[in-house]
Design goal:
By secondary structure, the protein is mainly β. The protein has one domain: Nucleic acid-binding proteins (OB fold (Dihydrolipoamide Acetyltransferase, E2P), Beta Barrel), CATH 2.40.50.140. The protein is about 0% helix and about 60% strand. It has no helices and five strands. Strands 4-1-2-3-5 form a five-stranded mixed β-sheet, with no helix packed on it. The radius of gyration is 14 Å and the shape is elongated. The chain starts with a strand and ends with a strand. Belongs to the universal ribosomal protein uS17 family.
Length: about 70
């Protein structure tokens, strides 16, 4: 289980949000750092997350695409 920090990009679902997580990696061919964005679904029991909020949650691979906040 890995702690992840991201920004809420969608809160249209009931008790769920979509969180975008940015990461940098070094491209070997171009010798530059490249930014990639991954989107995760997270559980929001109280429905208080808004778009643009910075959220901390724990990644859990066994739940598939659903991740606890």
């Amino acid at each position: 289980m890995k702690p992840v920090v991201g920004i809420v990009v969608s809160n249209k679902m009931q008790k769920s949000v979509v969180v975008a997580v940015d990461r940098l990696f070094h491209h070997k061919m171009y010798n530059r750092y490249v930014k990639r964005t991954s989107k995760f679904m997270a559980h929001d029991e109280t429905d208080e997350c808004n778009i643009g909020d910075r959220e901390y949650f724990v990644s859990n691979d066994s739940l598939g695409c659903l991740i606890e906040v």
